[in-house]
Amino acid sequence: MNWIKFSALTLLILVVPLSGISCSGESDEAAKKKLEVILEDDLKAILEGIPDTALIEKPYYNLFSYKQYDKGNYSKKAEADFFFMKSVHVKIVRKYRYHRSKRMWERYYNEYGFISEKADSAGDK
């Protein structure tokens, strides 16, 4: 009888905290780290096949929007601009959302956008 009480107590001590972690989702810091890895990989993929002479000195991305939501399938949303071309005044705009139950980011928007000459020259530092 004592063995059953001990096992039930042990199970309760181990399972309750773990279920709280799985239900509450991943921490915002962990999700941001995952996003940073994806942004770096996306920048590398964008630059593949483009001659170095066509690129600005230091191609970069700007994460300009990051929002969190309490309800729904997606708990976070992020938007980033990728700057990389020297003489063509375009950027790539990408939007990402964080799937709450899968604990992963997905890209759902990928389009070119025009940039002003002032913004382009700022990226050519």
Q: Specify the helix fraction band.
A: 40-55%
Termini separation: 74 Å
What's the number of extended β-strand segments? 4
Beta-strand content bin? 35-45%
Number of helices: 3
Shape: elongated
- Strand line-up across the major sheet: 1-2-3-4
Q: How many domains in all?
A: 1
Averaging pLDDT over every residue, what do you get?
Answer: 83
- Poorly predicted ranges (pLDDT <50, ≥5 residues)? 5-24
Major beta-sheet overview: 4 strands, antiparallel
Question: Whole-number radius of gyration?
Answer: 22 Å
Order of SSEs: HHEEEEH
| Secondary structural class | alpha+beta
Characterization of the model:
By secondary structure, this protein is α+β, with helices and mostly antiparallel strands. The protein has one domain (26-123). Helix content is 40%, strand content 38%. It has helices spanning 2-24, 28-47, 117-123, and strands spanning 55-68, 74-85, 90-99, 104-114. Strands 1-2-3-4 form a 4-stranded antiparallel beta sheet, covered by helices on one side. Strand 1 (55-68) and strand 2 form a beta hairpin. It is elongated. The N and C termini lie far apart (74 Å). The relative contact order is 0.14. The model is unreliable at 5-24 (pLDDT under 50).
